[in-house]
């Protein structure tokens, strides 16, 4: 008997006005290899290489597959109760509202050359605040390896089965009630210490209020409201707003790597967080765009100095 293929709830073709790179625009949404909510589709099982995402929309869970054609158009197929929302959201997710026209980087050859070569770079706006904040909280003060392990564990335990033909192992982000009810020993097994788990629970408790910040333009008002949650500092608010609100100016102050990458790229020297902000000040309003340009350029800081030590809280 031939296998049953579930028909997509929504199929569409998005024709962006400006060039768009799925890899550059959506890459920041994936939480490492094996992220249960994000999977690159390299074999092109739906006609062309692309990406799978699962998401918990205001209308319910959704699975969406995106594939980019040679002409730049993006074919989307979506399943689940949130399929219509995910499809309608697609232009914003791919940076349709991210306007780079006012950015002048002519004084810095690295930036100017990258902007010329990568006109398909945009900042994504996903309009899902809690879904962007929880992994950012989990990533506080630990290595990427630890954070990704914790994220995979919690999603495998508490995420829901995605609709449609999502690849094996993918899960849908749990709702706020589920996050609030995760017992302490499960956070412990995931390697998330009590301070971060409590912050996740606090965020889930005010989830409705977080989503209401989507009515505000990205900026200080959004950041200040996020930071009313105990345990959410400037780094977590920035990492969230960059993705949820598509904030083109927020900077990951307090990150272990970003300040040095910016410092070496713009001055040839390492920089602390305050020096990073000084270097980015000429582009206030576009500072996250400058950071994205630096990373898109392929620039890498020199490799020397200590790395963060991997901590395993599960044994404590």
Radius of gyration: 20 Å
Write down the overall geometry.
Answer: globular
| pLDDT averaged over residues | 93
SSE class: alpha+beta
CATH architecture of the domain at 10-99: 2-Layer Sandwich
Specify the helix fraction band. Answer: 40-55%
How many strands, what sense, and barrel or not for the largest sheet?
5 strands, antiparallel
Task: Look up the CATH topology of the domain at 10-99.
Answer: TATA-Binding Protein
* SSE succession: EHEEEEHHHHHHHHHHHHH
Query: Number of DSSP helices?
Result: 14
Q: What is the first-to-last residue Cα distance?
A: 52 Å
Percentage beta strand = 5-15%
Please describe what this structure looks like:
It is built from 14 helices and 5 strands. It is of the alpha+beta class and 316 residues long. The protein has a domain at 10-99: TATA-Binding Protein, CATH 3.30.310. A 5-stranded antiparallel beta sheet has the order 1-5-4-3-2, with helices on one face. The longest helix is centred in the middle third of the chain and has 15 residues, at 144-158. It is globular, with a radius of gyration of 20 Å. The termini are far apart. The model has no long low-confidence stretch (mean pLDDT 93).
């Amino acid at each position: 008997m031939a296998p049953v293929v579930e028909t997509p709830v929504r199929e569409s073709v998005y024709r962006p006005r400006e060039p768009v790179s799925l890899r550059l625009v959506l890459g920041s949404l994936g939480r490492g290899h094996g992220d249960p909510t994000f999977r690159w589709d390299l074999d092109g099982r739906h006609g062309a290489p692309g990406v799978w995402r699962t998401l918990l929309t205001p209308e319910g869970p959704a699975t969406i597959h995106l594939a980019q054609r040679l002409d730049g158009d993006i074919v989307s197929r979506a399943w689940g109760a949130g399929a219509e929302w995910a499809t309608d959201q697609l232009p914003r997710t791919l940076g349709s509202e991210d306007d780079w026209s006012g950015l002048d980087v002519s004084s810095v050859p690295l930036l100017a050359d990258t902007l010329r070569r990568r006109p398909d770079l945009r900042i994504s706006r996903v309009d899902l605040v809690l879904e962007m904040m929880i992994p950012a909280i989990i990533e506080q003060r630990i290595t990427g390896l630890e954070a990704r392990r914790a994220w995979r564990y919690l999603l495998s335990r508490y995420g829901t089965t995605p609709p449609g033909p999502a690849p094996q192992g993918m899960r849908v982000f749990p709702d706020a009630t589920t996050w609030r009810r995760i017992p302490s020993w499960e956070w412990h097994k995931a390697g998330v210490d009590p301070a971060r788990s409590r912050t996740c629970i606090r965020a889930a408790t005010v989830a409705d209020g977080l989503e209401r910040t989507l009515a505000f333009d990205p900026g200080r008002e959004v950041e200040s409201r996020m930071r009313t949650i105990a345990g959410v500092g400037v780094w977590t608010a920035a990492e969230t707003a960059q993705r949820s609100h598509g904030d083109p100016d927020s900077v990951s102050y307090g990150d272990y790597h970003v300040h040095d990458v910016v410092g070496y790229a713009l001055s040839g020297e390492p920089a602390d967080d305050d020096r990073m902000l000084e270097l980015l000040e000429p582009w206030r309003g576009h500072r996250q765009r400058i950071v994205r340009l630096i990373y898109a350029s392929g620039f890498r800081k020199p490799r020397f100095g200590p790395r963060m030590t991997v901590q395993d809280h599960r044994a404590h």
